Amino acid sequence: MIGLVVVSHSRALAEAAVALAAGLLPDQGVAVRIAAGLSAAEFGTDAVAVADAVREADSGDGVLVLMDLGSAVLSAETALDLLESPVRVRLSAAPLVEGLVVALAVAGGGADLETVAREAEGALTAKRSQLGSSVEPGARPIHIYPQVVHLWITLPSSRYSR
Questions:
Q1: What is the dihedral of CA 15, 20, 26, 32, to 10 degrees?
Q2: Largest CB tally within 10 Å, which of 7, 28, 54, 88?
Q3: What kind and span of H or E run contains 38?
Q4: What is the rounded distance in angstroms from the CA atom of residue 150 to the CA atom of residue 155?
Q5: Which regions of the chain does DSSP assign to beta strands (E)?
Q6: Strands (E), 15-88
Q7: pTM for this prediction
Q8: Where are the beta strands (DSSP E) in 20-108?
């Protein structure tokens, strides 16, 4: 069974994401490890901690690494260079929370690394569908407000309009 590693700048954020996923999908039998924060209270990422988490999560079937922000990606990439023995690792572009939940479900079902990675990276599909969004990721919606509303607010000392 593949393992999962959550890399975040915040230990509290990573622990909460893992707790949420594990609470929604208990007893999946998937090794989930966290490499987050430079300490419990200090933000940052550490490539050595990521490499250690990958080693701990690996059962021989591979490890999917989910990351929060840009430099977490850099730390994860550096961690790959620190691994002495060959470990099948896939760095995922999936959104952290949604991707983790999907990855845990699919990995818990016994899927291989490539399948788990593909499903995790498609994790926003349900949210986009629920919101009625068919636009490309990164596109910005245009909001048109055809009316202007004037409000008079009376305060004890004066009158303001907006």
A1: -30
A2: 7
A3: none
A4: 16
A5: 3-8, 32-36, 63-67, 89-92, 152-154, 159-161
A6: 32-36, 63-67
A7: 0.81
A8: 32-36, 63-67, 89-92
**Coil, strand or helix: which one is 53?**
helix
d(CA 70, CA 89): 18
What six digits make up the tokens of 124?
Answer: 């926003």
By the 8 A CB rule, do 93 and 121 touch? yes
Task: Evaluate whether 106 touches 119 at the Cβ level (below 8 Å).
Answer: yes
Neighbours of 131 (CB within 10 A): 11
64-87: pLDDT as tens digits:
999 999 899 999 999 999 998 888
**pLDDT tens, position by position, 126-152:** 788 888 876 555 555 544 444 555 555
> β-strand 159-161 against 63-67: which pairing, if any?
unpaired
